[in-house]
Design a protein that fits this description.
Rossmann fold; Interferon-induced very large GTPase 1-like; G_VLIG_dom; 8 helices; alpha/beta; globular; GTP binding; 7-stranded mixed sheet
Amino acid sequence: MELMDGDAGHVPLMWVSAVLDELVKILGDQKVFVLSVLGIQSSGKSTMLNAMFGLQFAVSAGRCTRGAFMQLVRVSEEMKEELKFDYILIVDTEGLRALELAGTSTRHHDNEIATFVVGLGNLTLINIFGENPAEMQDILQIVVQAFLRMKKVRLNPSCLFVHQNVGDVSAGEKNMEGRRRLQEKLDEMAKLAAKEEEESEAECFSDVIEFNVKEDVYYFAQLWEGSPPMAPPNPSYSRNVQNLKKAIFRKATKSP
């Protein structure tokens, strides 16, 4: 279901509130865990969610998802005991830094989407395409700023970082270096965001949100082995999806 129109210049709070109120009426006192995803355009967000939960979010090159869409997934009876909730509400969003919005107030638009999505989710997946966090500097700042705003209103969401399209996901030494660079960049962005939000307490990213760079960062292989359309799916991608799904459920069991 469309939660937010991609052509809207702002987050339609009345509409979102009405949709969520209706959802609460339908579900009653059943417990819902909200999983949201953020990342740049064409970074594989929708594909990942589809593979993980058997969904049908639209996928293609370019600005495919516009706005925010949500889908409710019922938890099976055998998993309810372990997870302690009845449904997962999955929120897929349009890519940040959309080329179609270049030249307009892209930064403000991205900030609104990030704050909305992070505020809605118990857990947010931050989707990074490739291995270079330096290229993601502005996105990371937007994400850190959104988490800082949650802290100010005493909300405590959690996050996992996903690096898509990584050449060799088994290269431990290389990935350790990638994690170190990501941590440095996040700490740097935390200081910048703290200045913008006039929040002097945040000296590093872990001051903003509980985060362990060794456990909360996942590397994904390329989706295809070779060049589509004739290339077969990469089995490593499926294993990466399963490992991430287990991590999401581990976080979910600790969610208040």
